Amino acid sequence: QSLDRPGRFDKVVNVDLPDVRGRADILKLHLKKITTAPNVESSIIARGTPGLSGAELANLVNQAAVYACQKNAIAVDMTHLEWAKDKILMGAERKTMILTEASRKATAYHEAGHAIMAMYTAGATPLYKATILPRGRALGITFQLPEMDKVDITKKECLSRLDVCMGGKIAEEIIYGKENTTSGCGSDLQSATNTARAMVTQYGMSEQVGPINLAEKWESWSGKIRDIADNEVVEILKESEERTRKMLSKKSVELHRLAQGLIEYETLDAKEIEKICNGEKLDKTKTSTNTVVEGPDSDERKSLGNDQKKVPSLIKA
To answer: Which of these is catalytic: 111, 172, 173, 266?
Structure first.
């Protein structure tokens, strides 16, 4: 703090992350350095990359150029840029990982639960893609992208974020029972807990606690009010769990359809997910990148979730 005292550095210039117009200009600058196809539009990529810095956008273009070279393409097109965007947003693909059939199916239901909640929960951030191709440290990812840059969040959007986080865990419980849910929901619960805690201690969105900011100097508040805040966080999370269970039970047909679609096609975008949930057929090649083996007999999930009567046809009659 001594640096910004009067007479030293009086002016502070805040440099925020680029908005959609800034990202488009940055992408244009870097795209000039490579050969691009006529269909490349920097504005489309810019709209789909909220929150990325200039360095990350430069990396996106470089990754797209490398991928185009690997594919022996004469120019970088939108397909290469979309691939690079997915790699940066969702992590690198782990194509050599060996999966058991039960684990892959459980991941499909887990990601389907997230996707269903993102589609049908009011106020949720629009769905972008869902995949059961392992990326980074995750066995699967359901990714959402805002339609435009966001600088704030409403209580309704906070609650919808909680419900989407709970989707994977509750989907596993519905299909396999509470005893066979996996540790894959750990990061989801961490994200949900952080959001619920922020609602109570920072955003003033709790009726029990009221319009108080408890986040700063948490230890200075009385034990009574801290207990109230902690109990309120737990209550918000349990209410979200119940809302999610009701929604996924209501959308059981769509849940089974989408899980089956992910097993067959591995990666689906928002439009494809909507088609599958409506029972429509996709004009797309079935894919399974990873080696899938039969799991051990001790894995109880092998015998669960296989009731074919519950799984509706992917194609409308």
So the answer is: 111
Query: Domains in the chain, start-ordered, CATH in brackets?
Result: 20-90 (1.10.8.60), 98-303 (1.20.58.760)
Q: Are strands 98-100 and 291-293 parallel, antiparallel or unpaired?
A: parallel
C-alpha of 40 from chain center: 26
Summarised one tens digit per residue, pLDDT across range 262-272 is: 999 999 999 99
Taking the C-alpha atoms of residue 311 and residue 157, their distance in angstroms, rounded to an integer, is 31
Q: At which residue do the structure tokens 């096609």 appear?
A: 265
Contact 248, 113 (CB under 8 A): yes
pLDDT at 309 (0 to 100): 40
**What is the pTM (predicted TM-score) of this model?**
0.85
111 has catalytic annotation: yes
